[in-house]
Design brief:
The protein is an alpha/beta fold and about 230 residues long. It has helices spanning about 20-30, 35-50, 55-65, 80-90, 105-115, 130-135, 155-160, 195-205; strands spanning about 70-75, 95-100, 125, 140-145, 165-175, 210-215, 220-225.
Length: about 230
């Protein structure tokens, strides 16, 4: 659980941004998938309480990447490759998704899943601290995707903003943080994380070089497009 209160105790810090009935309806529109790998990845998340973007946000990420013709994506925080699955589908056989995660077990799981899905050859997965891995790369990216520890969100934005090509995107997950960013009183998972997300969001919305919007689906997905002029 994301709070220290009893499940039966009202928690004023938890605000559901989209009515669950609406999200269920939206999910029904995506239709069933017969891809066994995706089903296995989602089942693993459910059984192990592993945070993933899930189906609605996954299809959103794929659509965004396809809409700008993305071929080069960097993921700050990749887990076992669920979001990379959607980006890899979008970038095509000539594209690459550079992944980062601190756990070698997650890398192996990602390799197993994405190999079975026929997508591993589009992925360059590194084990280690995401910011260090990013600093070792060169060139511009079509998309920089931020899903690291929430206290590091402002740092990741400052690193990534100048490495996004004009017309490219900065995408960040969990930017509503279960409503804590809008709550007067909240119980945080880690002290300072909510404030870091708030700082991250303000930095980007106040940046004149980016057009920015938050999709409130699930836990909030920020999309910032770097202006071309």
């Amino acid at each position: 659980m994301d709070n220290m209160q009893s499940p039966t105790t009202p928690n004023p810090s938890i605000i559901v941004p989209v009515n669950p009935a609406i999200e269920n309806y939206m999910r029904s529109l995506t239709g069933p998938t017969d891809h066994p790998v995706l089903i296995k990845m989602e089942e693993y998340a459910r059984q192990n309480n592993f945070p993933i973007v899930d189906r609605l946000v996954g299809t959103f990420l794929e659509t965004l990447a396809k809409s700008i013709g993305a071929r080069r994506v960097f993921e700050f925080g990749s887990g076992y490759g669920y979001s990379a699955y959607w980006f890899a589908c979008a970038v095509g056989p000539e594209g690459v998704v550079i992944c980062s995660d601190g756990d070698a077990v997650n890398r192996q799981k990602a390799q197993d899943y994405l190999t079975a899905a026929g997508l591993w050859d589009r992925v360059d997965f590194h084990t280690g601290f995401a910011q260090d891995i990013f600093a070792q790369t060169e060139g511009l990216f079509d998309i920089c995707y931020n899903d690291v520890d929430k206290g590091d969100y402002p740092e990741v934005w400052r690193m990534a903003r100048d490495r996004i090509r004009p017309g490219g995107l900065h995408i960040a997950d969990n930017v509503l943080w279960h409503g804590r960013v809008a709550a007067e009183n909240f119980v945080d998972i880690v002290p300072g994380w909510t404030e870091a997300i708030q700082e991250h969001n303000l930095l980007i919305f106040n940046d004149p070089d980016f057009d920015t919007f938050i999709n409130p689906t699930r836990d909030g997905v920020l999309v910032a497009r770097k202006k071309t002029v």
